[in-house]
């Protein structure tokens, strides 16, 4: 978890720091948050509620939240979850995020994501590649794919969205026009989703 960070300037003109003031997010901003074709999706892609998570593989609270997130997804067949790789805790985090996004080309993002969040060592180049090899990923191809434009764009957009909303760290969960920061219970996370459905 982080408390302050320096981010690139947002790419969108609006800066809606509204979720914390009880207002609705502008429709275009909500579309960018909820329907980015370049963001991995967990759960039901056609679900009737969307939960967004901004996370970092080196964030201990993100690691603690993985089983909580899985429990909420398992209990809610109508939940669509957008994963926003937001590597803010150093170069190892950037490498892990790029590798995870690159693993989509080998059809292993969900598995790779969960193993990276469940490992004890800090996510660094060596530990990330060791995990990839242990899962049977082609690590040479993975490293080539890490340079893809769509990967840089995903991370850039995460930075822009986070800065526009004034996010303070990872994990941050957003549903509707509300958010939660840090480690929370599955009940609290489910309440966030239920409130988004009601509104």
From TrEMBL:
Residues 50-192 form the DSBA-like thioredoxin domain. Residues 1-21 form the signal peptide. Keywords: Disulfide bond, Oxidoreductase, Redox-active center, Signal. PANTHER family: DISULFIDE BOND FORMATION PROTEIN D, GLUTATHIONE S-TRANSFERASE KAPPA. This is DsbA family protein. It comes from Paracoccus spongiarum.
């Amino acid at each position: 978890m982080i408390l302050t960070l320096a981010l690139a300037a947002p790419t969108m003109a609006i800066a809606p720091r509204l979720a914390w003031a009880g207002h609705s997010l502008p429709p275009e901003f909500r579309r960018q948050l909820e329907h980015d074709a370049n963001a991995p999706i967990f759960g039901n892609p056609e679900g009737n509620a969307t939960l967004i998570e901004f996370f970092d593989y080196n964030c201990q609270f993100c690691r603690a939240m993985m089983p909580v997130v899985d429990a909420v997804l398992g209990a809610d067949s109508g939940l669509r979850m957008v994963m926003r790789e937001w590597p803010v805790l150093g170069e190892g985090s950037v490498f892990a995020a790029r590798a995870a996004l690159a693993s989509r080309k080998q059809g292993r993002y969900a598995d790779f994501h969960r193993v990276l969040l469940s490992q004890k060592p800090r996510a660094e180049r060596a530990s990330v590649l060791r995990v990839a090899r242990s899962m049977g990923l082609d690590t040479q191809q993975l490293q080539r794919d890490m340079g893809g434009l769509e990967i840089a764009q995903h991370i850039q957009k995460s930075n822009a969205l986070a800065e526009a909303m004034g996010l303070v760290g990872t994990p941050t969960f957003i549903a509707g026009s509300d958010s939660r920061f840090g480690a929370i219970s599955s009940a609290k996370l489910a309440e966030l989703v239920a409130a988004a459905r009601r509104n």
